[in-house]
Amino acid sequence: MTSGRIEELKKRRQREFKRKKNQIKYAVFCIIVAIIIYAFFLIHNVNYSILWLIGLLLGFVLQRSRFCFTASFRDPIMVGSTSLFKAVVVAFMISTVGFAIVQYNFIQGVQNISLNDIPGQIHPVGIHTALGAILFGIGMVVSGGCASGTLMRIGEGFLLQIVVLIGFIVGVLMGARHFEFWDKFIISQASTVYIPNYTGLPMATIIQVVVLILLYLLADWYDKKNSMMSM
To answer: Which of 4, 61, 88, 184 is the most buried (most CB within 10 A)?
Structure first.
């Protein structure tokens, strides 16, 4: 099923449902609360007020774009659409270049720099990474959303996602409680791979961007192929 077909079905279903009650009063209430929280942060901590605004803007963009990591990896398999997957790949391209600039400016002219000092999340990669990815992948498909998607849907009124959020909180607390054990016996034993150590930062950036471009082209071909098959 193509992305166009999906949108057509959505519009048809929306026409079938009765018109919802006016929710302007709820929107006004939420806006007032957001302004009050912003004013409180502005008085007590300017940094928090900036983060609050960024969070509101990110939430708005996520809600309007329907951007979701779960859907980006689920839709190509379930419905054959790669539009969200391509959006994620483009986001990775932008972040790759952005982080490369930040890291290059940081390490420029610095001698004997440690990986722990370089900006970014550079951690050991091993079996724990694969197991965590599998568990999280299964969980986000079953629950119907990733972290950002869950928060977005709670804001839209999907009460079932509150159960998912509770699961997130429980999982995070359990992970924090037992992290020392896993770090001692598994994580700390794995190797930390920082490709710029072998190729240099500019070449590593180019290689990663090229790989992402190839993934984008492959996803675009897959999307067009499914569109032609459904015609």
So the answer is: 88
Task: Extract long-range pairs of 86-91: CB within 8 Å, 24+ residues apart.
Answer: 86/216, 86/219, 86/220, 86/223, 89/212, 89/215, 89/216, 89/219, 90/216
Higher pLDDT, 32 or 226: 32
The reply to whether 202 and 161 lie within a common domain is: yes
What's CA 153's distance to the chain center, in Å? 14
Count of domains in the chain? 2
Residues 155 and 167 in one domain: yes
pTM as predicted: 0.70
Chain position carrying tokens 């960024």: 54
| pLDDT value at 177 more than 80 | yes
| 3-class state of residue 145 by DSSP | coil
Q: Which residue, 15, 37, 65, sits at the end of a domain?
A: 65
> Domain range spanning residue 55?
1-65
Beta bridge partners of 39: none
**Helix, strand, or coil (residue 186):** coil
Residue 15's pLDDT band, with cuts at 50, 70 and 90, is low
Structure tokens at 93: 């391209």
Stronger pLDDT, 11 or 188, i.e. the higher one: 188
**Domain check: are 55 and 6 in the same one?**
yes
Which DSSP symbol is given to 191?
B
CA 126/CA 190 separation, integer angstroms: 5
User: 55 vs 34, 58, 148, 193, 227, CA distance in Å?
Assistant: 11, 5, 11, 32, 36
pLDDT at 110 over 60: yes
Sequence-separated (6 or more) residues with CB below 8 Å from residue 60: none
